[in-house]
């Protein structure tokens, strides 16, 4: 013990450092300075993660071509491959990638398209379609008949016209049920969650930011707070090195190391280790993983309210890449029901207008009815009501995910880009070192008076 005390006494007096004693004000100020810089690094690092939502910057002629030959890592800087100099938040810039990983790593494990569709209760969907569509039927029948055979429709007595409409209305529940059943049977071919989610995230990068912030805001706040703690603790050995060798460029160099490690420790604190471990008898697990059940509820609400909704499923079924197939399937399901609706009038109508014209009327009615049949899918109020069932399913399945899969849901999309945060920390750490020299010039810089 005496030897250790003597060593520190000799070090503080300067006998071990070339006659330069310890400047205690400088020594004490360095950890506080690195602590503040660490806080700024993590705070600004979060800004870089999420802001701005859209690219802010300017185009540089020829930069797009140059960007194709620079190292691949640098090509990942937002905007560079489009020839722009500026910034877009890493998370919104990788919105489509986040959507892809969300499907591959999480949503695909939560349920198949058929399971999601079943949770939406097709029977209730069919009832809602009938309720919305039924009042439109008289107008639709009138519109089709006026277009396809105006003279016949004009000459028919009103009671006969009403009878045709009534028979169609009577067939409507059966028609709609056959359509919703048919969609359910083929939903795995008609609905591609990956395309749907990627496209929605790409068009709405703010939604991806919402996922991160709402699910992990507590951990993100802790990351900023720990930036000061990590910076302060790392500043102690920096102060020792600085006061031992008194070389002016050591502070900026050590600032690079401190800045890099501060950001890396912040990310590790949130996400690692995914499984609980005991280190020196202390249970250690990523902060984000400790709240898996709570985070699962938040994540499920966002996905059910904004991503996998009845409204968006309807949009995808009708206007997505397989929309033509959906429309044809609905139209085909309509035709037998239209024949039943014609009933005993069918023979007379065939004689009056000919079989070709009758087929044209059937096809026209079926095609016109397609859009109106699926429109209730897009009713936001009804969609919101049905989304609660999706939320319950996703929350339950997300809670059951292994911790490693759960953490990938949040981290995988940005993992390849974390180097930008670490590099940003290193640059700010070096800047902090130069600032410290500027504020507290103790004479270590050649050419400056002591």
What is the secondary structure topology, with strand pairs?
Layout: H1 2-13, H2 24-50, E1 56-59, H3 63-67, H4 72-75, E2 84-87, H5 90-93, H6 95-110, H7 113-119, H8 122-133, H9 137-148, H10 150-155, H11 158-190, H12 193-203, H13 205-245, H14 250-271, E3 277-279, E4 282-284, H15 287-290, H16 292-307, H17 310-319, H18 323-342, H19 345-353, H20 355-374, H21 380-400, H22 403-415, H23 418-439
Antiparallel strand pairs: 1-2, 3-4
Helix pairs in contact: 2-13, 2-14, 2-23, 6-12, 6-21, 6-22, 7-11, 8-11, 9-20, 11-18, 12-13, 13-14, 13-16, 14-23, 16-21, 17-18, 18-20, 19-20
Mind explaining what this structure looks like?
This protein has 450 residues and is mainly alpha-helical. The chain has two domains: 51-88, no CATH class; 92-450, no CATH class. It is built from 23 helices and four strands. Strands 1-2 form a two-stranded antiparallel ribbon. A two-stranded antiparallel sheet has the order 3-4. Helix 6 (95-110) crosses helix 21 (380-400), helix 9 (137-148) runs antiparallel to helix 20 (355-374) and helix 11 (158-190) packs antiparallel against helix 18.
Characterize the overall form: elongated
Global Rg: 33 Å
Low-confidence residue ranges: 442-450
Q: How do the SSEs run, as a string of H and E?
A: HHEHHEHHHHHHHHHHEEHHHHHHHHH
Task: Write down the overall mean pLDDT.
Answer: 76
Distance, first to last CA = 35 Å
Helix/strand class: mainly alpha
Largest sheet: 2 strands, antiparallel
What is the strand arrangement across the widest sheet?
1-2
Keywords: Membrane, Transmembrane, Transmembrane helix
Protein name: DUF445 family protein
Transmembrane segments: 24-50, 220-241, 247-271, 419-445
């Amino acid at each position: 013990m005496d030897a250790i005390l003597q060593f520190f006494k000799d070090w503080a007096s300067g006998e071990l450092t070339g006659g330069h004693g310890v400047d205690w004000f400088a020594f004490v100020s360095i950890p506080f300075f690195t602590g503040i810089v660490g806080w700024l690094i993590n705070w600004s690092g979060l800004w870089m993660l999420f802001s701005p939502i859209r690219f802010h910057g300017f185009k540089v002629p020829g930069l797009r071509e140059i960007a194709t030959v620079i190292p691949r890592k640098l090509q990942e800087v937002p905007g560079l491959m489009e020839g722009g100099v500026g910034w877009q938040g890493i998370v919104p810039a990788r919105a489509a990638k986040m959507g892809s990983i969300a499907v591959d790593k999480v949503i695909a494990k939560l349920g198949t398209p058929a399971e999601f569709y079943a949770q939406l209760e097709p029977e209730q969907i069919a009832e809602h379609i009938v309720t919305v569509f039924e009042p439109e039927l008289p107008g639709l029948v009138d519109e089709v008949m006026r277009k396809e055979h105006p003279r016949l429709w004009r000459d028919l007595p009103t009671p006969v016209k009403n009878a045709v409409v009534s028979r169609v209305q009577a067939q409507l529940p059966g028609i709609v049920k056959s359509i919703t059943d048919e969609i359910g049977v083929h939903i795995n071919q008609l609905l591609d969650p990956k395309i749907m989610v990627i496209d929605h995230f790409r068009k709405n990068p703010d939604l991806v930011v919402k996922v991160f912030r709402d699910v992990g805001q507590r951990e993100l706040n802790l990351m900023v707070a720990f930036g000061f703690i990590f910076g302060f603790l790392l500043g102690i050995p920096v102060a020792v090195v600085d006061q031992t060798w008194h070389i002016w460029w050591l502070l900026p160099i050590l600032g690079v190391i401190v800045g890099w490690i501060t950001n890396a420790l912040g990310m590790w604190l949130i996400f690692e280790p995914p499984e609980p471990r005991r280190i020196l008898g202390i249970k250690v697990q990523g902060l984000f993983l400790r709240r898996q059940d709570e985070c699962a509820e938040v994540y499920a609400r966002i996905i059910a309210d904004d991503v996998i909704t009845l409204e968006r499923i309807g949009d995808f079924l009708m206007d997505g890449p397989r929309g033509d197939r959906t429309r044809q399937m609905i139209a085909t399901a309509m035709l037998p029901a239209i024949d039943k609706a014609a009933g005993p009038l069918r023979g007379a109508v065939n004689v009056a207008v000919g079989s070709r014209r009758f087929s044209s009327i059937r096809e026209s009615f079926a095609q016109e009815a397609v859009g109106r049949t699926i429109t209730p899918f897009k009713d936001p109020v009804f969609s919101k009501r049905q989304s609660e069932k999706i939320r319950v399913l996703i929350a339950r399945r997300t809670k059951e995910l292994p911790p490693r899969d759960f953490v990938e849901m949040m981290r995988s999309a940005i993992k390849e880009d974390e180097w930008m945060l670490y590099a940003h920390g290193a640059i700010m750490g070096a800047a902090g070192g130069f600032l410290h020299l500027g504020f507290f010039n103790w004479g270590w810089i050649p050419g400056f008076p002591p």
